Predict the 3D structure of the following.
Amino acid sequence: MSNTLPAGWQARPGCLNDKILLVTGAGDGIGRACALAFAKLGATVVLLGRTQDKLEAVYDQIKRDGGKEPAMVPLNLAATTPVEYAQLADMLDTEFHRLDGIVHCAAVLGDITPMELYSAETWSQVMRVNLDAPVFLTQAMLPLLKASPSASVVFTSSSVGRKGRAFWGAYAVSKAGIESVTQVLADEMEHLGTLRFNAVNPGATRTTMRAKAYPAENPLTLKTPDEIVPLFTWLVSDDSRAVNGQSLDAQPKP
Ligand code: NDP
């Protein structure tokens, strides 16, 4: 299997019509682009993010585009407790009775600095947002995901999660953890035949995080979030039903 979007694949209008999809980091960057694209294709989107104003702007845009009424969940993933994840699951159960997918986009960069100097406080914060939150949010959602006839969870990885790189510290380690979490969950749930887990490395993409990591780079040389969203769309659609436990690239090297 190729580890990217199948050549020529395009989303059919309405292909996500019956889907309830939770997107984290939905207020900005790649998560925002995913939320808007999924809603345009008919999904009901649950927008989870840290900043209420940003979520409201995405909510308004979805309504302007004629999408289904989204749900908004302002949550700071650096501080969310298992009890709060369980409360969110209860809320979604009451509202929707199932979940057909999660796209985990929320993440922080932390410091770009040698391991020797890495601050313990920043390390913990990066691990909480980038690794613990996707794990425990997914764990809390498992009953709802199992209630779906066809559910897909997409984690967001990075090239430094596949091969560690000097100075990328906690971010690299958190993304290596995400690759592993994807494989463990995919293996554990494969027997169900209705729930799958994959990881995507977006590649260099024009967002706030990328600008923070590479301040001297010309952002106009980078793909926009909208340009890389089709891989995420394919993964949450039923067209990728056979794909489980894979690590995919939105911008594969030629
Ligand atoms: P952005 O910084 O543009 O967006 C990150 C999102 O995560 C924001 O919406 C932010 O909310 C949210 N977020 C951050 N911290 C928290 C928190 N504590 N609680 C809730 N939400 C939070 O990043 P990208 O869109 O670039 O990144 C998306 C994913 O892609 C990430 O997992 C990233 O690691 C990965 N990635 C990105 C690459 C790139 O080149 N852009 C390359 C490789 C991987 P708010 O805006 O409110 O702070």
